[in-house]
Specification:
The structure is a single chain. This protein is an alpha+beta fold. Helices cover 32% and strands 21% of the residues. It has one domain: Gcn5-related N-acetyltransferase (GNAT) (Aminopeptidase, 3-Layer(aba) Sandwich). It has a four-stranded mixed beta sheet with strand order 1-2-3-4, with helices on both faces.
Length: 126
C-alpha cells in the first residue's frame, strides 16, 4: 500500500511535505513526510501501521473527509546530516505544520531503533 499511495501523497498533499534545508549551503538535510487524517483520540483506533496510515491520509483526502490529526509518515535524514539533532527539528516543524492547518493533534508512529537490523523480531519484542 505504501508504494501505491506514496506518489499521490507527494502530489496531492504537497502542502504536508517538508524539507529541512541548511540555510548556509541550501543543502537538503532531511525530508519530512506527513498527512492529515481523522482520529478520535482513542488509541485503539490508531492506524495499524504505516500502510493503514498512508491509505487513510490519501483516501480521506480524496473523499474530502474532515480531518483533525496530522500523522507523521517518514523522516529521511541525509547520511551526512545524521547526528545533528534533526529529529527534534523535524518534530517541531511537524507540530508547526499541524497548527498552520488547524489540526489539534500530531501522531508519530515510530519503530524501535535498529529494527532494520532485526527484521524478524516482532515490534513488541524489540
Amino acid at each position: 500500500m505504501l508504494n501505491a499511495y506514496w506518489g499521490p501523497l507527494q502530489g496531492e498533499l504537497a502542502d504536508f511535505q517538508l524539507l529541512l534545508v541548511d540555510p548556509d549551503s541550501d543543502e537538503v538535510l532531511a525530508e519530512v513526510h506527513t498527512g492529515p487524517l481523522a482520529w478520535d483520540g482513542d488509541d485503539a483506533r490508531l492506524p495499524a501501521g504505516i500502510d493503514a496510515a498512508v491509505t487513510a491520509v490519501v483516501e480521506g483526502h480524496r473523499r474530502g473527509a474532515a480531518v483533525d490529526t496530522l500523522c507523521a509518515l517518514a523522516v529521511e535524514v541525509a547520511p551526512a546530516a545524521r547526528g545533528r539533532g534533526l529529529a527534534g527539528t523535524a518534530l517541531a516543524q511537524m507540530s508547526a505544520l499541524a497548527r498552520r492547518h488547524g489540526l489539534p493533534r500530531l501522531i508519530a508512529p515510530v519503530r524501535p531503533s535498529w529494527k532494520e537490523r532485526y527484521p524478524l523480531a516482532a515490534i513488541g519484542d524489540t
